[in-house]
Design goal:
alpha/beta; Rossmann fold; seven-stranded parallel β-sheet
């Protein structure tokens, strides 16, 4: 994809954080962008904000934990624009704390959202991405290779996303679909209830992830960076 103009891109969990920052960058590149959120109101609010600087944006209510919901999101994109070129499987959440305090419900929501949700998003997108010879990009984490105390559910989900993505990369490349996973370290977002502020300036910014994705999509198609680790250049002071 030498140019992203008029390419159709679906971003799950695009109403804030990394997903929103990715959408901002890709819209500036001329892409048509659909973002999902669990509620239509939050999807519409984000789409309105994104469109204020130009570009075609579609807000869709979809829950990645629900397979039929993800299929409806893809169908809605096709209804609007007739094609899909890129899936950015970004939606995610985290519960952190000792395994002794981690509840079964927290474990299940983490796995259902961060791992099974990626599976549902990918499965819904494969047929149309075969048609467009498109691209699947999953947003994993350095927590998908570096385990830490209090990260049982989150580590499990992100280790799973990394392994899943690398396996489907091998499954799908013969069909012309490229697959990459991006594994960020600390990013300045609202993740886990945080409120980004000036003290987060040392962190990766959401638009930095967007730039990585734009660069991936414009890379010569003969080359595939299948797994990308990215971290802040400097530690916090």
């Amino acid at each position: 994809m030498e140019s992203l103009k008029d390419k159709v891109i679906l971003i799950t969990g695009g109403s804030k954080g990394i997903g929103y920052g990715v959408a901002e960058v890709l819209l500036k590149e001329g892409a048509k962008v659909a973002i999902t959120s669990r509620t239509q109101s939050s999807a519409d609010e984000a789409a309105k904000s994104l469109s204020s600087s130009g570009g075609q944006v579609l807000g869709i209510a979809a829950d990645v934990r629900d397979e039929s919901s993800q299929q409806k999101a893809v169908d809605r994109v096709l209804q609007e624009w007739g094609r899909l070129d890129v899936l950015v499987a970004n939606a995610g959440l985290g519960y952190f704390g000792s395994i002794e305090n981690l509840t079964a419900a927290q474990w299940q929501e983490t796995i259902d959202t961060n791992l099974t949700g990626v599976f549902y998003s990918v499965k819904a997108s494969i047929p149309v991405l075969k048609d467009s010879k498109g691209y699947i990009i999953t947003i994993a984490s350095l927590a998908g290779t570096n385990f830490f105390a209090g990260g049982a559910a989150y580590n499990a989900s992100k280790f799973g996303v990394v392994g899943f993505t690398q396996a489907i990369m091998l499954d799908l490349r013969a069909s012309g679909i490229k697959v990459s996973t991006i594994m960020p370290g600390s990013v300045a977002t609202e993740f886990n209830g945080a409120s980004p502020n000036s003290s987060d300036d040392w962190k990766i910014q959401p638009e930095d992830i967007g730039q990585i994705i734009a660069d991936l999509l414009k890379l010569n198609p003969r080359t595939l960076p299948s797994k990308i680790e990215v971290r802040p250049s400097l530690p916090p002071k």
